[in-house]
Amino acid sequence: MSRNTLLYTEMVTTGALIHGDRERFLRYDNSEHPVALQLGGSNPQDLAACARMAEDWGYDEVNLNVGCPSDRVQNNMIGACLMAHPKRVAECLHEMQAATSLPVTIKHRLGIDDLDSFEHLHRFVETVKESGCTSFTIHARKAILDGLSPKENREIPPLIYDHVYRIKQLFPELEIIINGGIKSLDEAKAHLQHVDGVMIGREAYQNPYPILAHADGEIFGDDDPVTDRLEIAERFIPYLEKRIKEGAPLYAVVKHLLGLFHGQRGGRQFRRHLSENGHQREAGIATFRDALRFVSQTANPDED
């Protein structure tokens, strides 16, 4: 859908890469470029080793996640809890930069728990930038580490976009990217009047077409025409065939396309057919093509 937007992997812990199935976590398809490897960890040497892996595997960027609020990562000093330890974060980023020529970036929250004032955020950025890191992606919510689930932490703490704007004003030399609750390109364009970039998470997954199919033209100035939804699905089939030959179950691959026809006539039947039939052992390309029959070749008006 887009050639220019930067794709992030899910967060991968340093332990998973150093001690686990490295290929499982690092492999990707060439069509995914530009793609960033997002790491979780707090040991500078381990993060440096994983940053080298990112370069060896051809990633375009390596990112340190200091925003994930789950209990599992907290207990291992990973994610948002590191916002209480800015000097440790700076040390981690310094070692990562020393280990790779790739851009090393950070993603974090406005704060955590009671460390949620703008002054704390300012001190955090000021300390971390001493590492040499120049790109900060800021989720414009704080994280409440004790009492809220990861899902609730994506929805309940209020969004304070102005705090991200103020960081950009105070640190004009830094690349500041805003994240959190952004659901359209129009919203992204409004934010781009104040910051350097926009990260979109859930909406790009649940309803990808309006954002990703138009981003290249509207944000990046790419003159190529927008591809329609059905053509996007057809273009996906060679990749799907390859993954099935490698042993991947159909649904494990196509579940990421369930939002492609969101709001379109036949979209609900498309999702239902794949959800009900994609798990079967014999499910294959024919199952996917059967699902596509529910959606029209011609563009239909959105039902929403």
A few lines on this structure:
It contains 15 helices and eight strands. The chain is of the alpha/beta class.
Write the layout of secondary structure elements.
Layout: E1 7-8, E2 12-13, H1 14-19, H2 22-26, E3 35-40, H3 44-56, E4 61-66, H4 71-74, H5 86-99, E5 104-109, H6 118-128, E6 135-139, H7 150-153, H8 161-170, E7 175-179, H9 185-191, E8 197-199, H10 202-206, H11 208-218, H12 229-245, H13 250-254, H14 267-277, H15 285-292
Parallel strand pairs: 1-3, 2-3, 3-4, 4-5, 5-6, 6-7, 7-8
Report on this model:
There is one protein chain. The chain is α/β, with parallel strands linked by helices and about 300 residues long. It has 2 domains: about 5-220, Aldolase class I (TIM Barrel, Alpha-Beta Barrel); about 230-290, Four Helix Bundle (Hemerythrin (Met), subunit A). Helices cover about 45% and strands about 10% of the residues. It contains 15 helices and 8 strands. It has helices at about 15-20, 20-25, 45-55, 70-75, 85-100, 120-130, 150-155, 160-170, 185-190, 200-205, 210-220, 230-245, 250-255, 265-275, 285-290; strands at about 5-10, 10-15, 35-40, 60-65, 105-110, 135-140, 175-180, 195-200. Strands 1, 2, 3, 4, 5, 6, 7 and 8 form an 8-stranded parallel beta sheet that branches. Helix 3 packs parallel to helix 5 and helix 5 (about 85-100) packs parallel to helix 6 (about 120-130). It is globular, with a radius of gyration of 20 Å. The model is unreliable at about 295-304 (pLDDT under 50). Pfam families: Dus (PF01207). Belongs to the Dus family. DusA subfamily. Catalyzes the synthesis of 5,6-dihydrouridine (D), a modified base found in the D-loop of most tRNAs, via the reduction of the C5-C6 double bond in target uridines. Specifically modifies U20 and U20a in tRNAs. GO terms for molecular function: flavin adenine dinucleotide binding; FMN binding; tRNA binding; tRNA-dihydrouridine20 synthase activity; tRNA-dihydrouridine20a synthase activity. Keywords: Flavoprotein, FMN, NADP, Nucleotide-binding, Oxidoreductase, RNA-binding, tRNA processing, tRNA-binding.
